[in-house]
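Per your request, structure below.
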């Protein structure tokens, strides 16, 4: 059974500050560890704030991504590109930055990302914190439907056809279940229904189905409108 804890913030600034501090703590974890970053606009202020100051971290820190749109890595739509304000100051060794190689054919990019995740787990690296978003349609990462959840069984990364016509590579519920602290960070208008359904553990919500392998999940929310 998955236990959900919700934390509501009175302002966007308060949410950003709390996320910055939570990420800072995870980045400073001693020993081989990893954090999973999400894309979208919600975590960007925290990424930028962290990147602007000192970021002490163990040299064995790894970074991975919840998903990646199938676009060039320097595209404004790329989650990797959006997180560069945080990644660049960290200056991780290439083997410690698990980037979806969108320069490869889509299925090959998904297969390579899966191999990288397999190697990460085989090395005993803990994912101490994993950020996730929640779409107005109830999706998370690039898992949009029950069909995506079904296709993800037995995999750690899959290629996805998004409803907006784009393609993507997404981690699977199997990876999310390995995250010690899965954290949904949600802000902006138009998500009230999705938030309410997620809090009600509605099995029709893809994001809720995606975390059924997790013992505990956190939801941080600042709602507008």
């Amino acid at each position: 059974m998955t236990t959900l804890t919700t934390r509501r913030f009175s302002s966007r600034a308060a949410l950003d500050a709390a996320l910055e501090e939570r990420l800072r703590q995870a980045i400073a974890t001693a020993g081989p560890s990893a954090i999973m970053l999400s894309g979208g606009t919600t975590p960007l202020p925290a990424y930028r704030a962290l990147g602007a100051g000192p970021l002490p971290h163990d040299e064995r820190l790894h970074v991975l991504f919840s998903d990646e749109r199938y676009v060039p890595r320097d595209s404004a739509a790329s989650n990797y590109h959006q997180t560069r304000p945080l990644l660049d100051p960290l200056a991780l060794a290439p083997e410690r930055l698990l980037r979806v190689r969108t320069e490869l054919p889509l299925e090959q990019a998904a297969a390579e990302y899966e191999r990288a995740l397999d190697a990460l787990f085989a090395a005993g690296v803990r994912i101490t914190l994993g950020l996730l978003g929640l779409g107005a349609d109830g999706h998370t990462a690039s898992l949009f439907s029950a069909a995506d959840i079904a296709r993800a069984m037995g995999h750690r990364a899959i290629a996805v056809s998004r409803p907006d016509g784009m393609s993507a590579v997404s981690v699977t519920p199997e990876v999310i279940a390995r995250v010690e602290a899965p954290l949904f960070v949600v802000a902006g208008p138009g998500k009230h229904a999705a938030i309410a359904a997620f809090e009600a553990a509605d099995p029709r919500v893809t994001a809720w189905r995606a975390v059924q392998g997790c013992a505990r999940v956190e939801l941080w929310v600042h709602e507008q409108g």
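The longest helix spans residues 106-122.

Regards,
D.
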